[in-house]
Amino acid sequence: MKVDTQTIYNKHHVNTQESKTTNKNTSYNKDTIPIENDSKYKNAPEFKAFIQKWMDKGDSEIIARERATFYAQAGLLEYGDLKLEDLEYGNKKHGLNLINNSVLKNAILETFDSLDNEGVGILVRRLFKHDVELNPNKNKDYESIAFQELIDEFASKLNKLGGLYNIDDKKYSNYKDLQFDGNINILENMSQLEKNFIYDTLVEYFKEHINKISLIEQIHNEPWTEAKDAFNVLISNFEKKVSEENDNHKALNQYTKNNKPIPY
Questions:
Q1: Could you give the C-alpha distances from 202 to 62, 121, 154, 197, 261, in angstroms and in order?
Q2: How far, in Å, CA of 98 to CA of 211, rounded?
Q3: SS3 for 42-57, per residue?
Q4: What is the Cα–Cα distance from 11 to 254, expressed in whole angstroms?
Q5: Please, how many CA atoms are within 13 Å of residue 114, restricted to the half-sphere of its CB?
Q6: Could you report how far apart the first and last alpha carbons of the chain are, in Å?
Q7: Dihedrals phi, psi of 35, to nearest 5 degrees
Q8: Does position 13 have pLDDT exceeding 60, yes or no?
Q9: DSSP helix/strand/coil, 17
């Protein structure tokens, strides 16, 4: 993967000198390499175990720690009382850990696990911070933002356009009277239609990120292929998880229908 090291490092905080492709098919080392000075992780057992897992897959401790930091930034990995750099956003205060949407979380986790550190860093950077490239007059504080706040901003833009129905009235015909309020939490009492409305909105949200990347490509006059590829992997994994949930819902409904008690 050919990368403009300076651009990618500055925008996504990825160590491109050591990052390498790692996926779920990576074989584990026969001999486990222990973490150096692991006492610093004594109050962060999940974080330590995560680093060791990726070291067992072949990563150096530096690269495994970098990956762990990305997952922690996204609210997908508990880091105890560690004071980690680059955890100023996407942490316990406003990460995915505060959102009740297992389909989304599982899709993001599967995507992270399939990408190298560069790809993971790109997704975390773009899902948890504003595009300063598209807003050059904003100060540095403008960058720090929560995942949910970016969703809310997209909701406002989407509703001004008339909602999903106005984006594609055939594909989204079921959503003609629905408006997105920014809530992506999945509740037990929701209908499958309401859940799918959230899922389809999230797909459009991820596509909006790709559109923004295209604008940034024009500004820098260089391709950001890695960023687009990372979002396309996320969209594919997310749509797969949504399809699985819908299939399970249909199967459960059919089972319930076939096993209704016989009235006497």
A1: 33, 20, 10, 9, 39
A2: 27
A3: CCCHHHHHHHHHHHHC
A4: 49
A5: 14
A6: 68
A7: -70, 135
A8: no
A9: coil
Phi-psi region at 29: left, alpha or beta (left = phi > 0; alpha = psi -120 to 50): beta
CA 56 – CA 26 distance, rounded (Å): 10
Q: Are 153 and 134 in contact (CB under 8 A)?
A: no
Tokens read off for 147: 């995942």
CA distances from 129 to 8, 65, 135, 151 (A): 15, 21, 12, 11
Q: What is the percentage of the chain residues whose pLDDT exceeds 90?
A: 58
Q: How many angstroms separate the CA atoms of 44 and 92, rounded?
A: 14
β-bridge partners, 129: 144
Q: Residue 144 forms beta bridges with which residues?
A: 129
Judge whether residue 179 has pLDDT over 60.
yes
Residues in the chain: 264
Nearest alpha carbon to residue 209 among 142, 128, 148, 141? 128
Distance in angstroms (rounded) separating the CA atoms of residues 52 and 29: 11
Residue 129's φ and ψ, nearest 5 degrees, are: -140, 155
| Dist. CA 82–CA 67, nearest whole Å | 15
DSSP string covering 97-112:
GG---HHHHHHHHHHH
From the CB of residue 190, how many other CB atoms can be counted at a distance below 10 Å?
13
Q: How far apart are CA 109 and CA 21, in angstroms?
A: 16
pLDDT in tens, 60-94: 999 999 999 999 989 899 988 887 655 554 455 66
**Hey, what amino acid is at 139?**
N
pTM score: 0.82
Q: Cα separation of 111 and 23, whole Å?
A: 9
